[in-house]
Every structure is written in structure tokens, then in C-alpha cells.
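cron nightly-structures :: item 1 of 1
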Amino acid sequence: MMRAKGSRRLVSALLLLVAGMTVGGCASVGVKPWDRDILARPGMTPGDDVITSSLDEHIYFSKEASTGGLGSGGGGCGCN
């Protein structure tokens, strides 16, 4: 009976320690001012090619319409 309580306390302490380390590790997340020029380059934008991204979105919602992809209704044929 004593071992069960001791192991529960140990597990609780370890979980608390891991949670504290996880929360503390997020404190330094952010972009430094000297790194912003790298992130502002045109190649770093997620959708810099409008035609390619619109075609990709059309293919995605045509295939995923039955599961609610991009808000379109109808079947997966893309005719709606």
C-alpha cells in the first residue's frame, strides 16, 4: 500500500516537472529583430504564386467536398 502512494507521488512530481519545463520552454519563442529581414523575403511567403495556390485549392476542395473541404458543398467531382 505504501509503494502505491509513493509511486503516485513520483509520477505526479515528474508530470509537474515536465509540464513546467514545457511551459518554460515557450518563453523564448519569437522572432528577433535581426531575423525579420530573412522572413520578409518573397520566397518565404506561404503562397507567393497565386495561380498555383488557387489551382491547388480547387483540386483540394474538389476531392474533399464530401468532408467539408474549404466550404464547398456537393460531391467530390468538382462540378458544383
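cron nightly-structures :: done
The mean pLDDT is 73.
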